[in-house]
Amino acid sequence: MIKLGDMKFRMFSIRVLLIRLFTGRVFTWNFFTSTLGATHQTTHQTIHQATHQTTHQYALGATHQATLGATHQTIYQTTLKATLLATLLATTLLTGCNNNAPTAPAPPTGSDGHVFAVETGDSQLPYLVIDTRGEAIQYEPKIAADLKIYVQKELVQTQPIGIEYRGKTSFRLSDKKGFNIETWDNQGEDTDVSLLGLPEEEDWRLVGHVVNLTEKYTYDESLIHNTVAYEIARRTGRYASRVVMTEVELNGRYLGVYQFMEKPKRDKHRIDITKLDETDANITGGYIFMIDKVSLGDAAIGLPLEYFYSNWDDDARYTIENSFRSRYDIFADTLAFEPFRPPYHPEQYLETYFVYEEPDASDITPNQKTYLANYIDQFESALRSDDFEAGERTYRDFIDTASFVDYLLINELCRNVDAFRISTYLVKDRDQALQMGPVWDFNIGFARGGRIPADGWVIDYNSYVQQDPWMMPFWWERLMEDPVFRGDVRARWLSLRGSEWSDAALVELVDGIFGELQRSGAVARNDEAWDDGIGMDAVTATDELKTFLLARAAWLDSEVSGF
Question: For the whole model, what pTM was predicted?
Answer without folding.
Answer: 0.82
